[in-house]
Design brief:
This protein is α+β, with helices and mostly antiparallel strands. The protein is built from four helices and eleven strands.
Length: 242
């Protein structure tokens, strides 16, 4: 399965139903598709407060003006609590920081399949002609500090599985991002009880990309007044307010 890289493993499980993708390309295509369909994007727009009337939100006030709508969907990722707190809603969330970096294969080296290095807890993904190595789950307040010992743990694990890959510490290539982690490990998904025209979709943890299409389908059905195809009662976005 991997003729161009030597593997030092006792065994593995191949998930034939699994897949991989290049996230920047996916996002660019999604944005282009939505813009072509008439969706307006307002970048670097910070919501300051919501104007309410009874059990509905009438208006969102931002640094770039106000926005009126029939319904509002809150999808703030790791920063979701900053939005929900403006509605006095408690949605506890911790940003789980993960690190990754890209490696350029040398010569005839190439990787065909994505892999999870179980003992090292490192994800390996062929991506856009390169290989991405990622890992760690660093829980704590959001910050821009890179803890080098965590990245070194990823780097040092690579030759234990791929002995031909001698990866130097990629100090200038380290990327980090946040996974939105709820206390009970469950998403925040559905309509608010307090405001019936406000929906929340967040808290996907490490499964955000995989859960995204399911989130979108459920939110679209709720907005359209259609029957949803899954039981989301356990994912109530206001469950910690009860």
């Amino acid at each position: 399965l991997e003729p161009n890289l030597k593997l030092d493993v006792l065994g593995a499980i191949l998930y034939r139903c699994d897949g991989k993708l290049y996230p920047p390309k996916l996002m660019q295509q999604l944005i282009q598709y939505l813009k072509a369909a008439g969706v307006a994007f307002f970048e670097e727009t910070e919501v300051h407060k919501f104007m309410t009337a009874g059990n509905k939100i009438k208006e969102a006030i931002s640094n770039k003006g106000s926005f009126q709508a029939d319904a509002f969907v809150l999808t703030g990722g790791a920063y979701l609590p900053q939005l929900t707190s403006k509605l006095h809603l408690n949605t506890p969330l911790m940003p789980g920081k993960g690190y990754s970096f890209m490696y350029q294969p040398q010569g005839e080296q190439s990787l065909n399949h994505a892999a999870l290095l179980l003992e090292a807890r490192v994800a390996v993904t062929p991506m856009n002609g390169q290989i991405r190595f990622s890992g760690t789950m660093e829980l704590g307040p959001a910050n821009d500090k890179i803890y080098e010992n965590r990245v070194r743990g990823i780097v040092e694990s690579i030759p234990k599985y791929y002995p031909e890959l001698q990866v130097d510490y990629p100090k200038e290539k380290i990327w980090y991002g946040y996974r939105p982690c709820s206390p009970d490990g469950l998403p925040y998904l559905g309509r608010l009880e307090k405001f019936d025209n406000v929906l929340v979709a967040g808290g996907g943890g490490m499964m955000g990309l995989s859960l995204g299409p399911a989130y979108g389908k459920i939110i679209a059905d709720l907005l359209a007044g259609q029957k949803i195809q899954a039981d989301i009662d356990g994912f109530r976005p206001d469950r910690f307010d009860r």
